[in-house]
Amino acid sequence: xxxxxxxxxxxxxxxxxxxxxxxxxxxxxxxxxxxxxxxxxxxxxxxxxxxxxxxxxxxxxxxxxxxxxxxxxxxxxxxxxxxxxxxxxxxxxxxxxxxxxxxxxxxxxxxxxxxxxxxxxxxxxxxxxxxxxxxxxxxxxxxxxxxxxxxxxxxxxxxxxxxxxxxxxxxxxxxxxxxx
Length: 180
Prior knowledge:
- The chain has 180 residues and is mainly β.
- The protein has 2 helices and 9 strands, in the order ββββββαβαββ.
- It has a 7-stranded mixed β-sheet, with helices on one face.
């Protein structure tokens, strides 16, 4: 982003729904997080693959109007020069966490602060609702995402080795938490 460009974050409205999946670009798969639970504490190591590939999540097709003007869920879209370059989708969970259903940034803007700004917006939304933290899940082979979450203050809080059993490339779903 240049100094003349200003990132603007909007709450989802009917006229912005068409922009939601525009941020769903492919991402690199080049290693995995290998978690370990020892004495009740999670740690992990990174294992890099010999070859890099890329993948892309399927586009989301939800009832987007259910995220407009609601107290318990929200979609925020990040715009730069009238182009949607990022999004975050959050819900208020029963356990008083803000669960991040999705966060995505256009490939060419990754590492430029868009994801950080979206997480900040989600945290502000969560704090306004007196929630105790944020949570999300990531697959163990999405190393860039996991590194980003750690850099933003998230801690590994658990894993599920069966959730992605249909996918031979994913060993575990990782659960990340940030307490306020």
